[in-house]
Design brief:
Elements lengths: L24 H14 L11 E2 L2 E3 L5 E4 L5
Antiparallel strand pairs: 1-2, 2-3
Length: 70
């Protein structure tokens, strides 16, 4: 396969934290997708909101700890 035929991707694993105030997944997603589009890139995947070490639902109710492995 030549370089012109190869598909190059970047896999992101991590967390984004606001230095001050609260950062909602919607606020982050809007800015992130704008950045992706501005560079003529695409994004496939998902995003989850985390509050105090717990994944939360849309109403910010804890779902499960980020430390849970299952």
């Amino acid at each position: 396969m030549s370089d012109k035929e190869a598909s190059y991707e970047v896999i992101l694993e991590g967390a984004i934290s606001a230095n001050s105030g609260n950062l909602t997944v919607e606020e982050f997603a809007d800015k992130f997708i704008d950045f992706i589009k501005a560079n003529n890139w695409s994004f496939g995947g998902g995003m989850n909101q985390v509050v105090d070490g717990y994944y939360v639902d849309d109403d910010l109710n804890p779902i499960k700890s980020i430390d849970d492995k299952d």
